[in-house]
Design brief:
93 residues; alpha+beta; 3-stranded antiparallel β-sheet; two-stranded antiparallel ribbon; elongated
Length: 93
């Protein structure tokens, strides 16, 4: 499912127009992005938690030249699914 399909499903389930559903979805994604940028966690009950994790610096390898490459430390967004979501996916509920 991509963003267009998500907006279509949201519009169909809520009775909104696709334009209104696109605005709502866009604002939701922006709110989550803004919170993560500030370093906050976003916890959605029975769905999961979005957070920023710190990645340590490491040494990788360039596959073409087969030489070591230093990869700097960075922050990366992360999502951890709630057990309710995990069981729904695994059991098809």
């Amino acid at each position: 499912m991509n963003r267009v399909e998500l907006v279509g499903a949201l519009a169909q389930r809520t009775g909104m127009t696709k334009v209104d559903a696109a605005v709502v979805a866009g604002q939701l994604f922006q709110i989550i992005s803004d919170a993560l940028t500030k370093g906050d966690k976003v916890r959605i009950d029975d769905f999961g938690t979005f957070e920023v994790k710190n990645r340590a610096p490491r040494v990788g390898r360039n596959p073409r030249a087969n030489v070591p490459v230093n990869i700097p430390a960075r922050k990366a967004p992360s999502f951890t699914a709630h057990k309710t979501l995990k069981s729904a996916v695994n059991c098809g509920k």
